[in-house]
Structure formats: C-alpha cells, structure tokens
Amino acid sequence: MPERSIGEERGVSAGAAALKFEPSVPTPFSTGAWSNRKRAIGLTNGGLRYLLLVAMFLFPLFNGPCVSRAQGSAEKALEQNGLSSHGGARDFFTSPAQEKKFTSQSPEALLESGLKALGQDRYEEAIPFFRQALELDPKLLMARYDLGVAYFAVGKYAEAREAFEEVLRLNPEHLFAAYFLGRVDLAEGDLDQAIRRLEAVSKGKPVADELYYLGSAYFRKGEADKAIRTLKQAAIAKPGDYRIHLLLARCYQKSGKASEGRKEYELSEKLHGTYQTKAREIIQCQQSLASKPKEEAETECRRLLGGDDPTKLISQGVLLAQYGLYDHAVIPLAKAAGIDPEDYEAQFNLGLTYFKMKRYQEAKKPLEAAVTLRPESYDAVALLGSVFFSLADDFGALRQLRHAHQLRPDDEKMTALLFEELRIIAQHYFAQKHYQESVPYFEEALSLRPDVAELHSQLALAYTALGEETKAAREQSAAKHQF
C-alpha cells in the first residue's frame, strides 16, 4: 500500500486514509478510530458501571463530533449521578476543591487541538498546540511525538530529531520515534545511520513502511542488490504499494536487468491507477453521505465500495459509522475481517462499531484480535478493557486496563478507570469477608490514588480481621490524614 497518511497510521482504516492518497507522513497506530482520535461515545441505560466508564475515560479520550452534540445532556446526567465527565466519581476520588478543572488551556485540550490540525494535514498550525501542551506538561509523550511528526512534515528536521530523540529517551521502546529518526537521517543524507536505524526497526513486526525506506537508503548508497532484496520483502508485506515496485524497477534498471525493470514499472503503474480509482470512490461515498438522504447514500456507498477488496470494505464501514449508520457499517467491516483476519484496521473498527452500538459481547472478539495483532496499540487495549468493564468481567477488564496503564502511565483517565476497577474488586472481596484476597487490590488501588480515605479505612479493617494490627494502625492513620 502506498505511504500512509497521518490519519491512517494513527489507526484510521486504510480506506479512510485514502481520502489523502498522496504520500504523506505516517504516524503510529495509537489512536485508531473512524477519524483522527474522534470516537463517538454516548450514554446508555447501563447503570452506574457504564456511567463511570463514560465519565472517567471514554468521554475525555474518545471525544468527537457525536460527543459534542450529546455533551449537554450527558453532562447533566453525570452531574445527577455525582460524577463529572472529566473528574470521574467525585465521592470516590476527590473533593470539589481538589477536583481538576480541564479548560481550553489544559495540556489535554491543547493536545487534542494539535491532533485535529495534524489529522487535517495542517502541520504548521499543529506545532504551537503541541509546544504549549508540553510547556504545561513536559512528560506528555504523545504531544512530544506528534510535535516531531509535525516538524518532520514541514521539513524542520533538526527540530523533529530533537523531539524524537526525547521520546526515545523517555521510552526507548518507541518504535515509531526510531522509525522517524531513520527517516530524518535519510532526509539529511546520513545513509549509514538511516540504514542502521531502519534495519533495527524492521527486525520485528512491520511498523510502517520502514522496508521501503530501507530499500531507498540502500539504493541511494549504490547497494542495488541489498535494495532489491529489501524491496522484495517490502512488496510481500505491502503488495499494493506502487512506490515499492517503482523503486524496484529503478534498482533492476541500474543493475542491468531491463526485463525485470519493465515488469516492475508496469505493475507500479497498474497499482497506482487502482489506488487513484479507490480514492475517487471513497471521496464519492463521503460526499454522498454528507449531501444525500441516508438510505440513498448508503446504497451509493455499497455500490462504490462493495465487493471483496478489504481496503474498500473498511472504507465503507468507517464512513458509514462516521455518519451514524452503525447497523450498515458492521456488514462491510465484518466481511473485511473475515477476508483478512490479520488486518488490524478491520478488527479494530469492527469492535469499535459494535461498542458504539452497545453490543459489547460482539465487540469483544474483534477487539481481542486487534490487541493480539498490535499489543502496543493503546487504543485497542484500552477499548477492550472498557468492553470487559461494561460486561462486568472485572478480571478481564483488569488485565487490559493494567496493560493500557503500562502503555501510558501518565494518562489520568486510564489511571482513574484502573483505580475504579481495582476498587470494585477489592470491595467485592471485602464485602464477602475474603479479607486476604481483598488486600492486594486495596493496596494497588491506593498506589494509584493514595488520597482516598475510604479505601484506607476498609484496608485497615481487613488488616484487623487478619490480625495484622501494625498495618491496620498505619492505614487508620492514613485515613484520618485524608479527612
């Protein structure tokens, strides 16, 4: 597939990203959604458990157009239940005086504004948002990374390098930062360093199009044989990427293999034509959804994007979901996932659509597949944890929420949701007088929120029941200190 757009590498489906088909700048599968970080989440009648999920996590993280439309009524419902859509459950966590107030100038809000601009290829506009977010919260890793992406996109390679190097300092396992540093090296002509970085990135699962750029580095260095071997690997990984075949043609031509070169040129032209056709069809579908009655638009999209091409099917499903046609959206998404079960985008978007429909049991299977395919995808892990939470599968939720917290330990919304799950389990064991079992969950919850007097008091009672008076006294003291 040709080089992915900002939106796609953030987790937008391959088809949705085709709205921006010209080669752009890839970024990681970190916020996979129907559009760049825009997930439409609404309230249900699912009771306090779902309300807590919305309040603490889903509203702040998965905001988007539909949330904006529903925000007024949702805020009222949350207030009536003693909750804040930004602060979580007040009675559990903080007093009104301590409650964090999110304003338009909060790091989170600035990050969202930057991501919105980034998703629309307005890179220069995105940069000051990310910079301001980092001034308020220097540890906001996503803002640091996306600042590097924006700098890279406008050709400010020194600034991009600085941002990506800082990301790697904070998280040495951040493969996308390493990938972009390889791209920076290549852009600046440091071919040896680019090769070293891109070779390291390409050793595991594909991150983006690192094999294409590694082949390009070999080609520019004059090592045509290595370039050909690498580009053949790239073509296996991404058989629809016309750029790979175009560069392969040049490599063969340089190596004196004219016949092989002609074949690759012809294949490149064919793929490029197919790609442009898909782009036009996706745009036509989007225009129909924006301007025609829903039933007529859905029929038009099915005509344009039907068949057995996973890219077109995912595009159809994503666009239909964006316009609220969830029942129609799951059909092409499920078909795409069936055709290629290894396609993260199909699985994630199918799970996300089921989640929007509040069909949590059906959302679980594709989201589990998405997490298996990309265990580093925070959004897939977090959403799967949210599904388990909604299904009252507390231990399933806990596994995924712990994983998500490990991926983003500074994310306050995830910390709040993980805390709430730990509190639920601890208090369940406590109510059943299973004091020994309750203790580790109380302790882990308090490691996240040590200011919650209620849990210190309950842990003290658990220790007393277990005959551990010293620990009980410590927790009683901590509880008094919080009041």
What does this entry look like structurally?
The protein is mostly helical and 483 residues long. Helix content is 71%, strand content 1%. It has helices at 6-9, 48-61, 65-80, 90-93, 107-119, 123-136, 141-153, 157-170, 175-187, 191-201, 210-221, 224-237, 242-254, 258-291, 294-305, 310-322, 326-339, 344-356, 360-373, 378-390, 394-407, 412-431, 435-448, 453-465, 469-482; strands at residues 83-84, 88-89. A two-stranded antiparallel sheet has the order 1-2. Strand 1 (83-84) and strand 2 form a beta hairpin. The longest helix has 34 residues, at 258-291. The termini are far apart. Mean pLDDT is 77; it is low at 1-104.
Mind sketching the topology for me?
Layout: H1 6-9, H2 48-61, H3 65-80, E1 83-84, E2 88-89, H4 90-93, H5 107-119, H6 123-136, H7 141-153, H8 157-170, H9 175-187, H10 191-201, H11 210-221, H12 224-237, H13 242-254, H14 258-291, H15 294-305, H16 310-322, H17 326-339, H18 344-356, H19 360-373, H20 378-390, H21 394-407, H22 412-431, H23 435-448, H24 453-465, H25 469-482
Antiparallel strand pairs: 1-2
Helix pairs in contact: 2-22, 5-6, 5-7, 6-7, 7-8, 8-9, 9-10, 10-11, 11-12, 11-13, 12-13, 13-14, 14-15, 14-16, 15-16, 16-17, 16-18, 17-18, 18-19, 19-20, 20-21, 21-22, 22-23, 23-24, 24-25
Supply database-style keywords:
483 residues; mainly alpha; two-stranded antiparallel ribbon; 71% helix; disordered N terminus
